[in-house]
Amino acid sequence: MVIQAEKIDKSSVIPIYYQLFKLIEEQIRKGDLKPGESLPTEHEISLRFEISRMTVRRAIAELVSAGMVYAQQGRGTFVATPKLDNIVFELNDFNQEIKERGLNCKSTLLEAKIIRADKELRERFQVGEESKRFLYFRTVFSAEDERLSYEVKYTIYSKSRPILESELKDPSLPGLIATHTEYVPMSAKKVLQVAVCTEEEAAILGIAPNSPVFLVEQTIYDPDLKPVGWSKAVYRGDRYKLTSYDGWYKKD
Amino acid sequence: MVIQAEKIDKSSVIPIYYQLFKLIEEQIRKGDLKPGESLPTEHEISLRFEISRMTVRRAIAELVSAGMVYAQQGRGTFVATPKLDNIVFELNDFNQEIKERGLNCKSTLLEAKIIRADKELRERFQVGEESKRFLYFRTVFSAEDERLSYEVKYTIYSKSRPILESELKDPSLPGLIATHTEYVPMSAKKVLQVAVCTEEEAAILGIAPNSPVFLVEQTIYDPDLKPVGWSKAVYRGDRYKLTSYDGWYKKD
DNA sequence: AAGTTTGAGATGTATAGACAATTACAGTTA
DNA sequence: TAACTGTAATTGTCTATACATCTCAAACTT
Fold it and tell me: Pfam families recorded for this chain (chains A, B) (predicted)?
């Protein structure tokens, strides 16, 4: 990994540490520095840019607090993996709670198939006629044999690759995209709404039709902000809630 | 404001900057340093503790990133005010959007009165028989003459102070607590659920009974984590949604 | 062959000092 | 009075250096 030294202007009014921070951030965003890869050592960077090591550390501190890299004493500094595995907001706290309580929970694949693209899908993914096929998944999440949520997922089909149930150990949408397509999931947009469930959803979840539910739509983007995945999930309103704490007190 | 220098152990394995960070954090939490008050200057602190100014800056940087203080070049460093004005999560983004769009929005006070404490209220606020009276508010939030949300608020009544509508410019629960009680709102817990609205709520909001709504319960705590306020708000499900972005890309 | 020690290299903490940028305020001037 | 100016105080940036702590692997010992 080579960082171009000439991109730092030491006489600029913009602080050196900030220029360096932006420079490395750009390398990561463009993919020149991939998750898991190591940054040059602080010593190397300070030599290459002819700046103090403390200034390099200031830039790296910014990257750390932005969650883009992590440092390990004695080893080095590494590019972090984007956290896209959460289902939504703090809803995953609930799932963590399930595990902490030792409850028996699992994801069940109801259906997985290749479908033909229709107009709505092509618009949602901003693709033309050339993209003919999409992958389609339907899954249910349950705990203690009670069905809690139901999710439908779509991704562009681009790899000639069989859909193996064994690969569905990571049923998250970013995981499916990484496994079944050539795209790299990079960022996500999530929209949470309230709704009343349809008859189909009610039957799957075992609740009364028109019960209130959380409705979460998620769009996954690749590094170029091209949509590469979309999902719609329904969470039982009587089993999920979101909790947050404000103020000065730390969460740990 | 005096910070006791003897509380720093320079020979400890715990970093000096971290000890100082914790020391100042404690002063703020205990109320010795109040919001708006200024910290001693970096130079003063470094003299008093006989440590380097850079070490002081490191401690203050931690406080800044924790949102507990803010620094102004040329002026000083000041204790921040806890941000407790948001209604909940990103729902306030919606209200910001209203203002940005130039929509005409307002809060209307439906009712404000002193009520007698019942058993449920006393349990919720963890007070005994000595607290006889509570303040009770009912408000509606509307935009473009459409009612969007309805909220009920309770606080302990401890000041002999008339309830003036002119004081309700800040109708937020922390604002009401600061105005009408002797307590200091310091942190908050918020729980968001989905529900179907009651007949009363439906009538107030002008929607059909049993329509899906966001239900947000909020508890406000003082610096000793004593509950000093509680509210329950209902947001029209067809008018509010929550959006969030994950990944590396900044929100700005 | 297995375990131990040693050392190089990496990040973490701390210091002392220099200068820049901004603010507030007192003093000066029109 | 009003506007300008200079100065001190305060935070912001940057350097150069020293030593601590941690990791890993090579060299050594048993």
Answer: GntR, UTRA
B194:A186 CB<8 A: no
pLDDT digits (tens, 9 = 90+) for A107-159: 888 988 889 888 888 999 988 777 678 999 998 988 888 898 999 999 988 76
User: Is A189 in Cβ contact with B245 (below 8 Å)?
Assistant: yes
Same domain, B49 and B102: no
- Give me the domain span that covers residue A39: 5-79
Per the domain annotation, does A86 fall within a domain? Answer: no
* Cα B169 to Cα A43, A122, B179, B215, B251, distances in angstroms: 56, 48, 11, 24, 30
Chain A residues with CB-CB distance to B187 below 8 A? 245-249
Mark residues 138-167 of chain A whose C-beta is closer than 7 A to nucleic acid strand D: none
Looking up residue A66, the CATH number of its domain turns out to be: 1.10.10.10
Residue A43 domain flag: yes
The domain total for chain B is: 2
Q: Which bases on strand D have an atom closer than 7 Å to a protein beta carbon?
A: 9-18, 21-24
- The more confident residue out of A132 and A96 is A132
Q: Which of residues 70-129 of B touch strand C (CB under 7 A)?
A: 72-75
- Within residues 41-70 of protein chain B, the ones with CB less than 7 A from nucleic strand C are 50-55, 58
> pLDDT per residue over B74-92, tens digit each?
999 999 987 765 555 655 5
Q: Quote the pTM value.
A: 0.79
Does one domain contain both A200 and A106? yes
Q: Within a domain: residue B246? A: no
Could you tell me if B39 lies within 8 Å of chain A, comparing CB atoms?
Answer: no
Selection from B51, B42, B43 nearest residue B15 by Cα: B51
Give the end of a domain, one of A36, A55, A79: A79
Q: Is residue B184 part of a domain?
A: yes
Percent of chain A at pLDDT exceeding 70? 82
A28·B248 Cβ contact <8 A? yes
| The two three-digit tokens of residue B34, written as one number | 């109040």
- pLDDT at position A250: 45
